[in-house]
Amino acid sequence: MKVLLGLMKKRISLPASLLEPIPNLEYWQYADRADIFAAIGDSSDELERMLAVLRFSFSKELKFIRARLGKPYNSALGEHFRCSWRLPPIVIDEETGEPVIRTHIHVPIPGEPAYGGQGGSGWTTPVLEQKHGGRTNSEASSIVSTSSKASKKSPGVGLGFKQSNKSSDTISINRAIPGPGDEIEADPDAGVVDSEKVTVVFLCEQVSHHPPISAYWYTCPEKGIEGYGMDQISAKVSGMSVKVGPGSSNQGIFIRIARDGPGQGEEYQITHPSASVNGILKGSYYGTISDQIQITCRGGEKSQTKYRALIDYKDESWIGKPRFLLDGVIYKYTVGNETEEGWTKPKQVPADKVVANIEGSWMKQIKYRLKGQKEWKTLLDLDLLALIPKDVRPIHEQDEHESRKLWDPVTQHLLSKNWGEATKQKQVIEQKQRDRAAARKAKGEEHESRFFEPDWEDGKPRLSAEGKKAIEEELFRRSSAAPPSSAGLASPAV
């Protein structure tokens, strides 16, 4: 353990045997539930949109629940990754006011631990009522009869599982494994009509090596939702764990509603909490989240007040099992009031300012209660959520600096458990990086990012012409329609 902690503390390159077979840029993405991201701007109500942003903020940590924790590959300068999802966004049930999950419901697989998965998680697809975008009864029956034969990844698991969405049954059980590999099952959204599905595209690039910083962009053109930010991680050893938090260039995730209608122009800033890797002594790693986050709405319609949410992730006791608890509030702040905009903890907000309370477990279920009401409603049931696989272009269609192609020699040897050769291939890639850096220095040149403009000091990256083109290409790949105009991919206003 001393060797491992020493390597982490000194930021020395780890041997391949201690790595997970996944590139850093692919691992650190926040759309494990792209269906929740796509639904952020669906409501015409200001408070409901804040609740939708909160759902996304809790879903972006899903990898800490479902996937095995590990160290991904360090990113190379200029490395980039892109992927997409074609899926039905969540909807809010009109009767209960609670979210209906329409794709990739979590089903425990044999031996799956309660938290800190084995590198993947079981999932199935709900067969929905027509009011939630489901197919007719005859279509659904046909799907169940054929898909039951196609469940090949989890033999011996029956189809009798029921999920807590009151409107649905489930069909074949599969397994989603994050990282390189065959992630996409045939017809994963069999219970939903095609007209209900939308496309979400993710693009990121390593724009700095010292310090390591990447820029990223999400978009769902059909819904007019965009997300962007800069990722920089600061890691330090704290006691018997490794604590990871945002670096100085990481100002959080920014979500913008770009479509016409209510909420147009609103931008939500979601700050990041800290995470700790625990269980090092036992050799069984799991993650915990601590500290506070703030979600602040700005822009949109001119108003003297906007919504803001504060969430407090509770520290875990050294004794007993972790509980993964949180609480929080939503309140209205006065625009320009430095005191109200400066609150960082729920307990700082006066009771007369609070419009809703939040509580629960970020591993299980999170509820909210509006001011003046006794009933708690489900904000998000994480027990229902499986990781949604990414759709990534095949290796032969990628260029040499795309993440999966760049690291493929290492990945293949890791998957074969050929640790020695994997380490050699990793060293070859790292040496090429050093050689390129030396060549640039000799010529007096600075690295120029390909997909993002160089101005990101405010934490908000801006797409370059190449970045807009890459997103358009990915959208076109997922659609039979003509490539969309880049007019819908404008960079955020300063």
From TrEMBL:
* InterPro entries in the cross-refs: OSBP_sf, Oxysterol-bd, Oxysterol-bd_CS
Biased composition, Basic and acidic residues: where in the chain? Answer: 423-477
- Comp. bias intervals (Low complexity): 138-149, 479-494
Any Pfam family matching the protein: Oxysterol_BP
Looking up PROSITE patterns in the UniProt record yields: OSBP
Region entry Disordered, spans: 129-165, 421-494
**An MF annotation (GO) of this entry:** sterol binding
Q: Name one GO cellular component term.
A: membrane
- Renumbered to this chain, the signal peptide range is none
Q: Which family does it belong to?
A: Belongs to the OSBP family.
PANTHER family annotated for this entry?
A: OXYSTEROL-BINDING PROTEIN-LIKE PROTEIN 1, OXYSTEROL-BINDING PROTEIN-RELATED
What protein does this entry describe? Oxysterol-binding protein
**Organism of derivation:** Kwoniella heveanensis BCC8398
